[in-house]
Amino acid sequence: MEVHTVTADAETFTANVYLAVADDRATLVDAGAMPGVVEAIREHTDELDAVVLTHQHGDHVAELDAVLDAFDADCYAYADHPRRTHELADGDTITIGDEVCEVVYTPGHADDHVSLVGDASLFSGDVVVHDDGAFEYGSFGRTDRPGQSREQLIESIQRLLERMPDGVEHMYSGHGGVFHGDVRDVVATALERAEKREPKYSE
User: Fold this and answer.
1) 133: alpha, beta or left, given left = phi > 0 and alpha = psi -120 to 50?
2) Which of 7, 12, 15, 79 would bridge with 112, disulfide CB 3.0–4.6 Å?
3) d(Cα 101, Cα 95) in Å, to the nearest integer?
4) Are 68 and 77 in contact (CB under 8 A)?
C-alpha cells in the first residue's frame, strides 16, 4: 500500500489528506480544504472507492463535495452528513487501501472524531499528531474551543493505546508530518502532555 499526502503542497490552511492506494482499492482519509485536491488525487489514481472522515471540522471536509462530485466514491462518517453513505461506529472495521482498520471513537477535539487503527498504521485525525508547532514527537488536538473537552481527549488517547497493536509503525495525522517508527511511544508521549492539563498554546 502506498499512502500519499495529497495536500502536501497546499498554500491554504487545510488538514492533511491521505490517499491510500493498493492494487484494487483507493481510499481517501478526509477531504481537506485545499482547492485543487481533486487534481492532486488524479495524479495518483483515476478511481476512488471511498472517503473516510475522521471528523467534520471545516479544514477536513471543505472540499468533500468537490471530491464526491468528481469520483463515484462511498463516504464513511461517524456523524450525519448529507453526503454520508455509511455510518461509522466504534468497533467497526474498514479497509484503508489494503489494510483493515478498526474504528476507534476518540472525542474531545470533536464530538464526532474517530481514529483508524490497523496492524501497521494509525490514521489519527487530530486527536494525536506527531508535530504541530506546539510539541514535537507527540502532540494532541486542541480543546480550548466551545464543545471541546480535554478530559474526553485524555480518555480517547488512553482508548487508542488500549486498542492499538504493538506493531504500528506508521502514523498519519490530521496536521504535521507523517511519522514512521514507534507509534505507541509517540501516542504515549502525547498522553503524558495532555494529562498535565496545561494550555496547549501559550497566550
Assistant:
1) left
2) 79
3) 6
4) no
Average per-residue pLDDT for the chain: 96
Sketch out the chain's domains with CATH numbers.
2-195 (3.60.15.10)
Q: Answer yes or no: pTM beyond 0.90.
A: yes
Could you please report the per-residue DSSP string of 118-160?
-SSEEEEETTEES--SS-SSSEE----STT--HHHHHHHHHHH
pLDDT confidence band for 203 (50 / 70 / 90) = low
Give the model confidence (pLDDT) of 101-145 as tens digits. Answer: 999 999 999 999 999 999 999 999 999 999 998 999 999 999 999
Q: HSE (CB half, 13 Å, CA atoms) of 36?
A: 9
pLDDT digits over 80-102, tens only?
Answer: 999 999 999 999 999 999 999 99
Largest Cα span, the chain: 48
Q: Which three cell numbers stand for residue 163?
A: 486498542
Contact 66, 30 (CB under 8 A): no
pLDDT at 200 (0 to 100): 84
C-alpha grid cell for residue 84?
Answer: 454520508
